[in-house]
Amino acid sequence: MKAKAKWSLVLSFVLALSLVLAVCGGSGSSSNNNGKSSNKLAKDQTLNFAITADIPTLDPTQVTDTTSNNVVQMTMAGLTRMHNNKFEWDMAQGEPEVSADKKVYTFKLRDQNWSDGKPVTAQDFVYGWQRQNDPAAKPAYNFLFASVGVKNAAKIQNPDDPMYGKFQNLGVKALDDKTLQVTLEQPAPPFFYSILSQAQFMPQREDFVKAQGKKYAQTADSLLYNGPFVLDSWKKGSGWTYKKNGDYWNKAKTKLDTVNFKVVKETSTAINLYKTGKIDEVGLSSEYVDAFKKSNPKEVKSAVESGTFFLYINQKTNKNLKNLNLRKAINAAIDRDGLVKTILNNGSVASNSVVPAGFVKGPDGKDFRADTPDGYPAGDAAAAKEYWNKAKKELGISKLELNFLSQDSSSTQQLNQYVANQLKKNLPGVTVKINAQPWANYLDLNQKFQFDLAFSGWFPDYQDPMTYLDMWTTGQPQNTTGWSNKKFDSLIKSASTGTADVAKRWDTMKQAEKIMMADYPIAPLYQSGHTWAEKPYLKGLNYPSYGPEIDFSRAYILEH
To answer: Chief subcellular site (predicted)?
Structure first.
């Protein structure tokens, strides 16, 4: 999602996407103390964010985007929690007891209450996990259970399997109120403990969910919390507010008392809020980066992230897009270097691959991208025209209109226009109709395949190439391309279940990526970067490469 994952998720979302600005800060003016701050905590520990998208959902079973994932990550506690790109034990007291065959993991749980005062039990984890695998709950991201190898998850999720929908057979059970036992199909993959921090593995309490019925997770009051914060209010379309959870077991590490999010779609508005001291951190889109580097050089920060952004190419409902040469033409028509330098200008780098560079190293100590550092062929106008001419001949067409689905934030609109212009310029006869939608509407249209091309991104759910690859297998909810390849599916299954031979698994994932990119079900665009301005008295804010996209659980504000 941020994928993340994050989540893992990937989430990361989600990570929101890199173009969904995350803006945060305190109540002080930028001119106070001439920009200097002490090392003493401010009395008012209030952090104010602005963000371009509202929360699509609060239901952990429905989370697919980074905005929703971030809310769940900050308000709920799973067995583990990600911090600074490493997992920590959260509801789990520590290392589980592991069986001799390394397939059964028995966790002891901490004493922790829900926000209504009732204790969190092992059965809450069992119900939460089972609900993620119950077709009646319409889970949107449950493939993670199969990815990590939870017993029977793959069968329960497969409509063609006799066990389909029988979530009671999932490999998880409560031995008592404080003991949770998880059974896997094979020894755990390297990312097992980190993936348990994701929204999909959070506990949910059965009596509360059923009492709420259709109202569950529709408001701040119709969800229970057991994490660092509780969601105090949510005004749909306007914003939401967190309050510190005084009952959280690790509350000593949470310094902030209040965190406010305000939906601000226009980048210029967010910039003005920063300049006037209403917020203390602001994501910088391309037109503001150079100016801020001149006026506030010490406040500007930049980092390359692990998010990958691309175009879905929908060959399920648009039969023309089943043509390989047409998909190759779309991929080759877009100049990635121009996109990242002139439109984004935020530290993002051009990308022609699925798994990003610098994300994870294999058993040989080399980055996954070492063999193909530049990815796969793209950004070649001459090749684009050649592929387009072949496609026209094969399809018997001379022109083509494409419906381009994207988000409606001001920064995304620049990208939308750039992509549309590139396609029209380099593929004569192609016209592009941009359909810019609010985030929740975008997700709905994407899942319903109501588009030809769709701009999207993926943040990792865990630190392993599989987080970018298994989402493209046949029938996965995130695979809104209609693409299906039996060899790819077979390789992903092999890499998911054959975890003992690490080197072989690594090579298998590389083979799978090559097969996918030879078919061009997507057009990779860039690996996300993040450039922002941050006041010196805001400390501890973290943008991890996977897990929550924005981790403010240990952020704090100094006197200023």
So the answer is: other
CB contact set of 84 (below 8 Å; sequence gap of 6+): 542, 544
Calpha distance 205→210 (Å, rounded): 9
Tell me the per-residue pLDDT of 500-533, one tens digit each, with 9 for 90 and over.
Answer: 788 999 999 999 999 999 999 999 999 998 889 9
- The residue assigned the tokens 């996965």 is 476
Sequence-ordered alpha helix ranges (H) in 361-431:
381-395, 410-426
Q: Contact, 396 vs 390, CB < 8 A?
A: no
Helix (H), strand (E) at residue 523: strand 522-534
C-alpha closest to that of 463 among 540, 370, 356: 356
User: Which residues on adjacent β-strands are paired with residue 556?
Assistant: 539
To the nearest 10 degrees (0 to 180), the angle between helices 286-295 and 267-275 is 20
Q: Kindly provide the b/e burial profile for residues 388-414, where b requires at least 16 CB atoms within 10 angstroms of the residue's own CB.
A: bebbbeebeeeebebbbbbbbbbbbbb
Please state the pTM of the whole predicted model: 0.79
Tell me the C-alpha distance between 308 and 524, whole Å.
Answer: 8
Instruction: Yes or no: say if 218 and 228 are a contact pair by the CB < 8 Å rule.
Output: no
46's tokens: 């209030």
Q: From CA 146, how far away is CA 200, in angstroms rounded? A: 12
Distance CA 292, CA 514 (A): 41
Using an 8 Å Cβ cutoff, are 513 and 354 in contact?
Answer: yes
The pLDDT tens digits for 407-436 are 988 779 999 999 999 999 999 999 999 999
